[in-house]
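$ ./design --mode recover --in tokens.txt
reading tokens...
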């Protein structure tokens, strides 16, 4: 059963790395612009919206267009954040393999 002990130690090591990475991801932000720069959204790599900035000229547009552009910017920012977060997580777990698991 030495293999099981090794597997448990490996899992614990990965868990510690993941916890440290989670804290790091909470601090990092990405910024995405939409509508030709009219809307800028900042999101943490844990998909937490931190800020939304609007160009004052953009606010002169039709309400429905403003709303759609804001929603699209938030979606893009969250998707980009999620991609970066998943890439960082996969770097940690890439060396971990459990027998019988794909």
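writing sequence...
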């Amino acid at each position: 059963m030495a293999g099981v002990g090794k597997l448990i130690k490996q899992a614990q090591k990965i868990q510690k790395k993941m916890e440290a990475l989670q804290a790091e991801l909470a601090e990092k932000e990405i910024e995405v612009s939409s509508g030709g720069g009219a809307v800028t959204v900042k999101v943490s790599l844990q998909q937490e919206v931190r800020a939304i900035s609007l160009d004052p000229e953009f606010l002169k547009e039709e309400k429905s267009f403003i709303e759609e552009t804001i929603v699209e910017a938030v979606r893009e920012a969250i998707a980009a954040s999620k991609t970066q977060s998943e890439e960082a997580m996969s770097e940690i777990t890439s060396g971990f393999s459990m027998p019988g698991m794909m």
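exit 0
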